[in-house]
Sequence to fold (241 residues):
Amino acid sequence: MKKVLNIIKNIFVWLMVALAVCMMIFTVVSVNTFDRSDRSLFGFKAFIVLSDSMSKTDFDAGDLVLVKEVDPSTLKEGDIIAYTSQNTSNYGETVTHKIRKLTTDANGEAGFITYGTTTDTDDETVVTYPYVLGKYKTNIPKVGRFFMFLKTTPGYIVCILIPFLLLILIQGLNCIKLFRRYKLEQMAEMKEERAKIEEERAESQKMMAELLALKAQLAEKENQNKDSEMNTAENGTDGNL
Fold:
């Protein structure tokens, strides 16, 4: 059971690490590429859809659209393009709409009449070639909405701060456990060493006692030999008399 819990804990930790790393990579990439007409990712420019003007047929607000830079002269009716708006209502914003037909503006410059499929209403101004950012290729649903949430304080807390705090907490607990284990092992080694020293001391005392006993036996035997020699000498003297 303990082994299973350790495996589950390790899987959870690695998932948290992967999530935190992915969030960091996504944040760095998105901040540097999303809604940046001068930046591309693998040859694509990425823009967050801000309205539902194309939701009837292609993509919704909050989706991330990917467009590829093309020669505007190759575009045709029915193509969807991203362009820098010159309309008074959203001047300078990036808009992704469908081409209704090819035309020219008041100055004779080639361009396109564009519209949103939801309202089927033509945009205010003709989109000339210099303002075309690219041709729509595909979209990733809801990624833009997630990015917008990530840019908020709650999004930062939930998606980045909390995972990193959890990782720090888990690693801190692991460090405490390792330190306690080290102290227990150190104390066990000290007890083992102390027991070994006590055992060696007892062995030394035993050997010392045996040596003293042997010395006493030798001394007693030596005394007996001396007494025997003295008795022999005395008996010899009496016999001579």
